[in-house]
Write a structure and sequence with these properties.
Distance between the termini: 75 Å
Number of strands: 7
Strand content: under 5%
Number of helices: 20
Radius of gyration: 26 Å
Strand order of the largest sheet: 2-5-1-6-7
Amino acid sequence: MMHWLGALYLLGSFAIFVRAFGLVEKSRKVVAVTGSSLALIRNPALDDEQKEAALRRDALLLFRLFFVLALGGAAALLVPAALIWSGDQFGVVSLEAVLRTTVSPTFLIGGTLLAFVVFSPRHRRRGGKSPYTSTERLLHRLAFGTRPAQVAVADLEDRLFAKELAPLETDRPVFITALPRAGTTLLLECCARLPEFATHSYRDMPFVLTPCLWSRFASRFRQNGEMKERAHGDGMQVSPDSPEAFEELLWMAFWRKHYRHDRIVPWQPENRDEFDDFLRNHMRKIIFLRRGPAAPARYLSKNNANIARVGYLRLLFPQALLIVPFRDPLQHAASLWRQHRRFKAIHAEDRFAADYMKGVGHFEFGANLRPIDFDGWLDRRTSEDPNGLPFWIEYWIVAYRSLLEGSGRRPVFLDFDALCRAPGPGLGAFAHAAQVRHAGAMAEAARAIRPPRPHEVDHGPIPPALLAQAAETHARLVRIAANRS
C-alpha cells in the first residue's frame, strides 16, 4: 500500500512543481520562438544582417529557456524523489517499488480514471467563453500532441478487435467533398441517418486514431449531450452523436509534408501501403462502432480536404463514389469570406478554439487558414489578401477547375442550389449516384431542406476577368450535374 501512496505523491508533486515553475508556459514559449525564427529565415523583406541579428537574439532566449526547463524539470523530479529516498533510508517505503509502481500500466490507467473523476465536466473554465471544460481541453491537447503514439496503439487495437473487424468491407465507400460551405454537412447528415452508412461522430473525439479503445474507455463517462448550434453560426444543430469530419487526423499523422505553414499541397496518385492499410482498418473500426460487426455498412466520409486527393482516393478505392456539391460562385465565395472573418474573430478571442481546429485539420478559415495549392496557384494568384472577396472567388475557380480538368474519372457533381430548390428530386439524384439501397428513406430529409439565404454581393472589388471565369466554370458544372434539370 505504501508504494501506491508513494507513487501518487511522486506524480502529484511533480505536477505541482511543473505548474509552480511555469514549465508548460516556458515550453510554449520555446515553440513560439522557434516558429518565429523559422519565419525570419523565410522572410524576403529582411537582409542577411537583419536576419542574423534577430536569430542571435532568439538563440540567446532559447538557451535561457532550455536552461530554465532543464533545471525546473530536474527539480520537479528530484525534490519529490528525495523525500521518497529518505523514506527508503528509514525503511518506511521502498524507492524501487515506488518507481516501479509509477510506470506500471495499472497506475497510469488508474491515474487517468482518477483525473476524469476529479476534473469532471461540471468544472468549467471561469470567465471564458469556450464551451469545453478544463478536462476536455486537457484531453484534446494530449490527443493532438501524441499522434505518433496513437498510430502505434492503433496497431494493437487492430489485433485486439481483429475478429470483429475481419468480416467488414471497405470497397464501396462514399466520399463527400468540396470547398467548405457547399452543403457537404447537410448531405452527410442525410446519409448518416441511413443504416447502410457509417461515419465519424463527435463521440470519436479526441482520440480519433484509436476509436475502438477510446469508445470502450469513454463509455463509462459518457453523458447525453444537448443539441446546440455549431460554431459556424449557420443554424445547424449538433450533439455528441452528430456526424462530423474528423478523418483529416489520419492524413495529418502520415503525410506531414503536405501541410506547409501557409498551404496544403495536393496529393499525387501513389501507393503507400502503410497508410493504405491504416486507413482501411480505421474505416472498418468506424463501421464496427456505428453499425456492429455483422452489418453490411459502407464507410461514409465528409472531408473538405479530400478535394486535394481525389486521384489518390480513386487509386486506393476504385469502386468509391466521390460526390462534390457546388453552389453559385459569388454566393459561395461570399459565404467563405464571411466564415473566414468570423473565425478570425473567434480564434483571436479563444486560443483553444484555434488550437482545436488546427488539431483536427480544419485549415479552411481564420487564424489557421491554409488554402489548398491547386497546381501552384497561390504563388501566382492575383488576389493576395484572404480578407477580401476576390481571393475567395479565385480560390473557388481554381478548386472546381482542378476537379473538372483532373485526369481519370470525374467525381459526381451535385448542384446544391438546385437541390435546395427541389429537395425531393435532388436527393433522389444523389441517392441514385450513391447507389443507396434505402433511397426512399431520404425523402424524409427533403422536408427539412431550405434554400440558403441569399446575400447581396458587391461586385465592385472583383475583377471582371474573375467574374467571367467563375461564371464559365459554374456553367460547366451545371451542365454535368447529377441533378441537372
